[in-house]
Amino acid sequence: MDQVPALLAPFHLLFYSTLLGTELYQTFVMTKVCYDVLPRSAFTTLQKHIFLPPLFSRFYSIIRSKQDWLPFAVAGLTAFLNLGVYEPRTSKAMVDRIHQATRDSRQPIENGSIVDEGPSLEMQRLNRVFSKNHAMTIHLNLISIAAMLFYGWRLASRLNMASV
Question: Which residues cross the membrane (predicted)?
Answer without folding.
Answer: 69-86, 135-153
